[in-house]
Automatic annotation (TrEMBL):
The keyword Transmembrane helix applies. One of its GO terms (molecular function) is transmembrane transporter activity. Pfam families: STAS (PF01740), Sulfate_transp (PF00916). It comes from Nicotiana tabacum (Common tobacco). It is found in: Membrane. Gene3D superfamilies: STAS domain (3.30.750.24). This is Sulfate transporter 3.5. It is a multi-pass membrane protein. GO terms for biological process: transmembrane transport. The gene is LOC107815299. GO terms for cellular component: plasma membrane.
């Protein structure tokens, strides 16, 4: 095999790779950056098949190693999160204006599916307030639950089905990077804004209101609260405040003494039980305190026949499904990763997408609505000492027993107790410290966060989210369209740094060194040309004041990861403009993909291989020799004249 062609400077001029080779490499980096199949290499076919099954269906990886010692921990964790799932399930179903039993159904089937396909042993599956309200808000644009509950329920199942399809497709196609477009600032603001409007909506239950707005923004909600002040019930308010204070005290105990995490974990179920006893013994309904009402026994009925794709209504279900698919993935994967990192473990985001997507598809067929990995439940699962995904199975079995035997008892739950549970949970989602941290560290990130927060609170959830994502994308596009460039000076003979960052560094007479820090594409090529020519103009003004001239422009291409045809044409234009001024372009350390593009477009032939170097030091040494020769030639010409 012949060695690659090299110039006198040691630069690799190997023939460009074929299109297929480049495409394969780019697809691998885009879709498989973590190289998930590295363990399969150099293995026998039978071992590859076994590991392949374990990779795609993780239960086959951990179940054969399972033992009674692990089960004792998972049993405790599963029972603990089940005690949290019952009140949360009923509460979030009421938040979405669904029959409360749907919330219990949603904590039975999805956890079983996740236990089979999920890769995070800490993630506890359940419904979340944010997505519950978001789907409800979207569907109520077209159908009100009071007018047609059957159609409303069908659209909820359809939105869950669409969400599951989107999530599964993203995972199978390895498109998890799309979720990254929901920046941390956007999620922080969105969650905070959602928490505010959900808390305000709970005033309906806390005050015992019978009439309330279907809008979710702060203005409409507060207007509805005060317009219906004649319906305020002091009995509801007293009970609600007592429950809320109790729940907040339990959270305070957990914060001060983390080993007492179980206090806040069981607090919601205690509120529900006490509320049921209070409602049953004192006939709460006669005192203006509404209760959940009848909850029938039995496991999830099939809901496949309820999925609807009627053109008049399917739009709202598809819109809600797509938006909540992305939000629930961002929340679930981020939570799963954060708890895995605590234990020095790693989870595959794309596998998590498939698992969450499959459990939502299965859920839409079995009378469940959207589920993911709630932070509160996952934190409880982790703190309770879960060891494997079996804790989700235990929770599911607890929910099965509840549905078969205990569901009717929860029908006595006062609505004010559910409102207190939701409000307490939402108060924990407003991360005041994170808001302040963003303000102190990055004003633009803080602006993105506040756009999401205020947009959700005062306009609508989907508009607030889209405005924040749009602003974040504008910022990303600005980074692409206005890439960083800097002039380098030498701190030592071999160390070159940005003169703006290190103001005391020296430039090199007759040589201008610029570093480009991003790909050169059509969106930024004009800017790159103008910025380089401006650097040259400014340097010439500086050198002229010292009676020197710029003769060489060194472009450090180490940070230029790729270049398109527009970018190459820009280099030709820069060379032409500088050539007219007697300035020669020198390239330093072009990357493989960039070098291949410069070779096939013949730019290297135009500037000459002698103008490409591996290091800045080599380039400067050659340029200095040329400057010295040029200076001697000029002196000789003067002497002759």
């Amino acid at each position: 095999m012949s060695s690659p062609k090299k110039s006198l400077h040691g630069v690799n001029y190997a023939p460009p790779r074929s299109f297929g080779t480049v495409l394969k490499a780019n697809l691998k980096e885009t879709l498989f950056p973590d190289d998930p199949f590295h363990e399969f290499k150099n293995e026998k076919l039978s071992i590859r098949i076994q590991k392949g099954i374990q990779y795609f269906v993780p239960i086959f990886q951990w179940l054969p190693k399972y033992n009674l010692g692990l089960f004792k921990f998972d049993l405790l964790a599963g029972i603990t999160i089940a005690s949290l799932a019952i009140p949360q399930g009923i509460s979030y179903a009421k938040l979405a204006n669904l029959p409360p039993i749907i919330g219990l159904y949603s904590s039975f089937v999805p956890p079983l599916i996740y236990a089979v396909f999920g890769s995070s042993k800490h993630l506890a599956v359940g419904t979340v307030a944010t997505c519950s309200l978001l789907i409800a808000e979207s569907i109520q644009e077209k159908v009100k639950p009071q007018e047609n509950m059957q159609l409303y329920l069908s659209l909820f199942y359809t939105a869950t089905f669409v969400s599951g399809l989107v999530q599964t497709a993203l995972g199978v196609l390895r498109l998890g990077f799309l979720v990254d477009f929901l920046s941390h600032s956007t999620i922080t603001g969105f969650m905070g804004g959602t928490a505010v409007i959900i808390c305000l909506q709970q005033l309906k239950g806390i005050l015992g209101l019978k009439h309330f707005t279907s809008h979710t923004d702060v203005v409409h909600v507060l207007r509805s609260v005060f317009e219906n002040r004649k319906e305020w019930t002091w009995q509801c308010a007293v009970v609600g405040v007592i429950f809320l204070v109790f729940l907040q005290l339990s959270r305070y105990v957990r914060k001060k003494k983390p080993n007492l995490f179980w206090v806040s974990a069981i607090a919601p179920i205690i509120v529900v039980i006490l509320g049921c006893l209070f409602a049953y013994l004192f006939h709460a309904e006669k005192h203006g305190i509404a209760i959940v009402g009848e909850l029938s026994k039995g496991i999830n009925p099939s809901s496949i026949h309820l999925l609807t794709f009627n053109p008049d209504y399917v739009y709202v279900a598809v819109k809600a499904g797509i938006i909540t698919a992305i939000i629930s993935l961002a929340e679930g994967i981020a939570i799963g990763r954060s708890f895995s990192i605590m234990n020095n473990e790693q989870i595959d985001g794309n596998k998590e997408m498939v698992a969450i997507g499959l459990m939502n598809i299965a859920g839409s067929f079995t009378s469940c609505y959207l589920t993911t990995g709630p932070f509160s439940k996952t934190a409880v699962n982790h703190n309770a000492g879960c060891k494997t995904q079996m804790s989700n199975v235990v929770m599911s079995l607890c929910m099965l027993l509840t549905l078969l035997f205990l569901a009717p008892l929860f029908g006595y739950t006062p609505l004010v107790a559910l409102s207190a549970i939701i409000m307490s949970a939402m108060l924990g989602l407003i991360d005041y410290e994170k808001f302040y941290h963003l303000y102190k560290t990055d004003k633009f990130d803080f602006l993105i966060c506040m756009v999401a927060f205020l947009g959700v609170a005062f306009i609508s959830m989907d508009m607030g989210l889209m405005m924040s994502v749009g602003l974040a994308l504008v910022r990303a596009l600005l980074y692409v369209a206005r890439p960083p460039t800097c002039k380098l000076g030498n701190i030592t003979e071999t160390v070159f740094r940005d003169i703006e960052q290190y103001p005391g560094v020296d430039g090199i007479q007759g040589i201008l060194i610029l570093k480009l820090g991003s790909p050169i594409y059509f969106p930024n090529s004009n800017y790159v040309r103008e910025r380089i020519l401006r650097w040259v103009r400014d340097e010439q003004s500086l050198e002229n004041s010292k009676r020197n001239e710029v003769e060489f422009l060194l472009l450090d291409f180490g940070g230029v990861t790729s270049i398109d045809i527009t970018g190459v044409e820009t280099l030709f234009e820069i060379r032409k403009s500088l050539g007219a001024k007697g300035i020669k372009i020198i390239l330093v350390n072009p990357r493989l993909g960039v070098m291949e593009k410069l070779i096939v477009t013949r730019f290297i032939d135009v500037i000459g291989k002698e103008s490409v170097f591996l290091t800045i030091e080599d380039a400067i040494e050659t340029c200095r020799f040329s400057l010295k020769c040029s200076s001697q030639s000029k002196r000789e010409d003067v002497e002759i004249a």
